[in-house]
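# nightly structure sweep
# worker-07 picked up a monomer target from the shared queue
# config: single-sequence mode, recycle default, output format = structure tokens
# input follows
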Amino acid sequence: MQNDRFRFPLDWICEKNQGRVFWGLFLLTVVVLVGLQAIDAHLKTAAASAGIVSFEMAGTLTRVRQILETWGGRGQVFAGLSLGLDFLFIVSYSSLLALGCQLTVRKFPGPGQVLVWIGGTLAWAQFLAALFDLVENFSLIRLLTGSFQSGLPSLARWCSVLKFSLVGLGILFLLLGFPAAMLAARRKSG
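# output follows
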């Protein structure tokens, strides 16, 4: 196989079990996402129309204070719950997308080096997205607990933008790459 030279981040999972692990991660990711959405319903206010994402993207201390004020004490507890549960979500979505990119590349019959490089790079990039998400969460937790250092909102926003960009590219690769891989495999066998 041409992609034997490329080291994927989840190569340590036995290849015959990777499909089962993928679906387990998919289920975990969906369950945690549903939980996050339920919590987020309590965080949507006039100042935070996108809930926790508004807080992630605030960018300035003034905007952070507006959001925290509209949330009040109860909303801030929900924000803390959301950030806590997000740590599990970070592990599940980054592993899910990384493994999905890895499996997609392996589904192509005789994939070329460019496809291996793109899929492999995006697989690794999901863990970089997770790192950005962790830095973002720690910044938001600091803000939520009263540390109003001027750089924290901007740091959280930039980490959020980079995270969403990398995750979006991974999802795009899966949405385009997996059907293309299945079609290519079908053509080769038929």
